[in-house]
Design goal:
about 300 residues, alpha/beta, binds 1,3-dihydroxyacetonephosphate, binds iron/sulfur cluster
């Protein structure tokens, strides 16, 4: 393992490359990353890095967004088949039908979406800024795609707007049940429940804190508790344990695992670095169309 890590560090220098990794990838991949974070942080980093090449350890919408935001860079994916099923769960025809129904509609697109879907949208959001951005928009009517669970959470937080939600979902978060959370609470009665807003409403109702992966980590670091039940993908435990010595973290289910995120391995990182392989490619036209909602997000996210 150490030999593979040393090879990656050498190759990064040789190839003028940086490794970006989402919190859900395997621990050893997070260990070789230059930047680890949630989707918003990684999209910001992608606009700022100076290196010629970005190796994006995550799923395809993440690499695609990095390429859209920074087209002059080589963006390489260790595994081109690592994809987020939810990223495809919305429909252009339905978006158009909504636009025909509501004159002032803003189509708000969770960053977990394909470039094809982003192109029909007005602004992107991530789980860390969705509420803030929907509040800041001048529009009264919002169509939130593709995640229904995050959309419903946003609708609750912004009751002054008419938020219509699409019916997409994350299979990893949506399978976590309220019964499983209750069982974990019985086992660890003093534990705080930390949940990602992609979880179903019944799970969010049991949560003491709701936020993005970074939000969950920051909350656990800052809170006085010592024991936490964590309702998000298991990869986040790596950073939780590192950043919160002496605290305990418990999963709710045995399989809170995103199989696509787990496709990224050290061998695959070495392969893309050595062979200059797996470049994210995107047509100029699609890039420009999908760039507008992403750039709007970065602007509105600053406020
Ligand atoms: P975060 O932006 O909270 O890291 O979430 C990304 C994701 O894919 C959640 O399933
Ligand atoms: Fe997509 Fe869910 Fe995996 Fe996140 S955890 S990448 S939303 S499938």
């Amino acid at each position: 393992m150490n030999e593979l890590k040393d090879r990656i560090h050498r190759l990064k220098k040789e190839k003028d490359a940086v490794v970006l990794a989402h919190y859900y990838v395997n621990d050893e991949v997070q260990e070789v990353a230059d930047f680890i974070g949630d989707s918003f942080y990684l999209s910001q980093v992608a606009t700022e890095v100076e290196a010629k090449t970005i190796v994006f350890c995550g799923v395809s919408f993440m690499g695609e967004s990095a390429k859209i935001l920074n087209p002059g860079k080589n963006v390489r994916m260790p595994d081109m088949t690592a994809d987020c099923p939810m990223a495809h769960m919305a429909d252009e025809k339905r978006i158009q039908a909504m636009r025909d129904t509501y004159e002032d509609l803003a189509v708000v697109c969770y960053i977990n979406s394909t470039a094809e879907l982003k192109k029909w949208s007005d602004v992107c959001v991530t789980s860390s800024n969705a509420v803030k951005i929907v509040k800041a928009l001048p529009n009264q009517n919002i169509y939130f795609i593709p995640d229904g669970n995050l959309g419903r959470y946003v609708a609750e937080q912004v009751p002054e707007k008419n938020v219509i939600v699409n019916d997409g979902y994350c299979p990893v978060h949506a399978q976590m049940t309220a019964e499983a959370v209750r069982a974990a609470k019985e086992k660890y009665p003093s534990a705080e429940v930390l949940a990602h807003p992609e979880c179903i409403k019944e799970v969010l109702e049991l949560a003491d804190y709701i936020g993005s992966t970074s939000g969950i980590i920051d909350h656990a670091r800052g809170s006085s508790g010592t024991d936490y039940i964590v309702c998000t993908e298991i990869g986040v435990f790596y950073e939780l344990v590192n950043k919160c010595p002496g605290k305990s973290f418990h999963p709710v289910m045995e399989d809170q695992i995103c199989p696509d995120m787990k496709k990224i391995t050290l061998d695959k990182i070495i392969h893309v670095l050595e062979e200059d392989a797996n470049d994210v490619e995107i047509s100029d036209q699609l890039r420009k169309q999908a760039n507008a909602p992403l750039t709007n997000m970065l602007e509105l996210g600053k406020v």
